[in-house]
Write a structure and sequence with these properties.
This protein is an alpha/beta fold. The protein has two domains: 2-303, Rossmann fold; 309-410, Arc Repressor Mutant, subunit A (Orthogonal Bundle). It has helices at 14-34, 60-74, 90-96, 110-118, 142-151, 164-174, 198-205, 209-218, 224-240, 270-288, 301-307, 312-319, 326-337, 343-352, 390-403; strands spanning 2-4, 41-45, 80-86, 103-107, 127-132, 155-162, 190-192, 245-251, 261-267, 324-325, 358-363, 382-387. The protein has a seven-stranded mixed β-sheet, sandwiched between helices. The chain has a three-stranded antiparallel β-sheet with strand order 10-12-11. The protein is globular and about 65 Å long.
């Protein structure tokens, strides 16, 4: 196998910081909520590494370990543990985790270790979060993810780091395509494996759809960027057949480049889906503010222009043609717009335009103290949203304008 990379653990790079930041920000609220189920909770870092980079910065194992320790300090009776799978650096990882409560290192190969979680003897009354962050693609057998769902754990969530561009580059090589991959893609980490085959790529992708996508690239029907977009859309759709809610964030080093990776999150519960979308959206906004400094970029100019099209309230209006439960409306909006907006931004827009562009019905209509309910918390009430007809919206806006003494011709 030939791999294009330097010493991965020499220095923690910006894209690695982003991945770990998203993991870190998700773990605290995840643990706080999941432990209320009263079931044992396990966080599994499938490709743990050393635990700490040579420059002293924490890797995913230490981030996970600190969150587990914090949870156990707040609730000592909680059955929360972290499991770290690592073969090459297991001894160093053990040293870096000395004193960390609830942590266990499994020294071994991922493919062999994951079989333990798929065995008939595994305990199913547990909550599992799998963090799957390998180098390259060869270990990302889609079948493992599908079979983990079938085990029937109390709950299952996965955060997968997928080298989507590397997958397509390897696919071009294996299919002997003659169309050249863009030069700027050469800067991306990738792996080639002499033992790899198109059939093995089918197992990684969860189907052979990637061949059709690359055939379109070869025929110049789509460019390489569009091929990557189509690939991740198809991949997440297949993952959604097993875990209902899927969201991803593209991670780039330069705005003109392909994503280095796609960090893909999958869960069976919409609360986790909303929380991760919120976290990914905030990470996106944070990075945009660092654009001038030549740091990471998440979207190219075309994608950024798309987010500057219809307003957020217009997007909500389009999806609320019929009475729709708030949670279901948020799911539809995220499925359509990805991480361009956060759930809290959608809720704020609905609140701002309630009675102007949106009808909102709550049951119960009052709070426990008897006041009229005005919140938009679907956990406290059954909340239904429906857009107002254009005519009604026009009249309401016109009435508001007249009350303010504005000229009727403004409309």
């Amino acid at each position: 196998m030939a791999i294009k990379k330097g010493d991965f653990f020499a220095k923690k790079r910006d894209w690695s910081k982003l991945k770990d930041q998203i993991l870190d920000h998700y773990l605290a609220p995840y643990l706080a909520k999941i432990t209320t189920t009263g079931r044992p909770t396990r966080i599994v870092d499938c490709f743990a590494g050393k635990g700490r980079f040579d420059d002293g910065q924490d890797g995913s194992p230490l981030i996970i370990a600190k969150q587990v320790a914090s949870m156990l300090a707040r609730a000592p009776s909680s059955d929360v543990k972290a499991v770290f799978i690592e073969q090459k650096y297991a001894a160093q990882l053990e040293v870096n985790l000395v004193g960390a409560p609830g942590c266990k290192v499994i020294s071994g190969d991922y493919e062999q270790c994951i079989s333990r979680f798929l065995s008939e003897h595994v305990k199913r009354d547990r909550n599992y979060l799998f963090y799957v962050d390998p180098y390259g693609i060869k270990s990302l057998d889609f079948g493992h993810f599908a079979r983990l769902k079938k085990v029937g754990f109390q709950s299952l969530e996965m955060l997968i780091n997928l080298n989507s561009t590397g997958f397509l580059r390897e696919g071009c090589r294996l299919l002997s395509l003659t169309r050249a991959v863009p030069d700027w893609a050469d800067d991306l980490d990738y792996e080639t494996d002499g033992k790899n085959t198109p059939a093995r790529m089918d197992e990684i992708a969860g189907g052979n759809y990637w061949r059709t996508i690359l055939a379109a690239f070869q025929s110049d029907t789509i460019n390489f960027h569009e091929a990557e977009e189509e690939f991740i859309a198809a991949y997440t759709k297949r993952l959604g057949n097993h875990l209902k809610y899927v969201i991803n964030i593209p991670i780039k080093e330069r705005s003109c480049h392909m994503p280095k990776y796609r960090l893909v999150f999958a869960t069976a519960h919409h609360d986790g889906f909303f929380l991760m979308t919120e976290i990914m959206n905030k990470a996106w906004h944070t990075l945009l503010t660092r654009e001038a400094g030549g740091q990471l970029f998440l979207f190219n100019d075309e994608q950024w222009a798309h987010t500057q099209g219809p307003s957020i309230e217009d997007k909500i209006w389009e999806e609320a043609a019929t009475s729709t439960e708030l949670a279901a409306l948020l799911i539809r909006l995220i499925d359509k717009n990805g991480i361009a907006y956060s759930p809290s931004e959608y809720v704020a827009a609905i609140r701002k335009y309630e009675g102007k562009r949106f009808h909102v019905r709550r049951k119960p209509e009052t709070t426990p103290t008897g006041l009229k309910a005005r919140h938009l918390d679907y956990n406290l009430a059954h909340i239904v949203v429906k857009r107002m007809p254009y005519a009604q919206e026009f009249l309401d806006r016109a009435g508001s304008a007249l009350e303010l003494g504005l000229n009727e011709n403004v409309f």
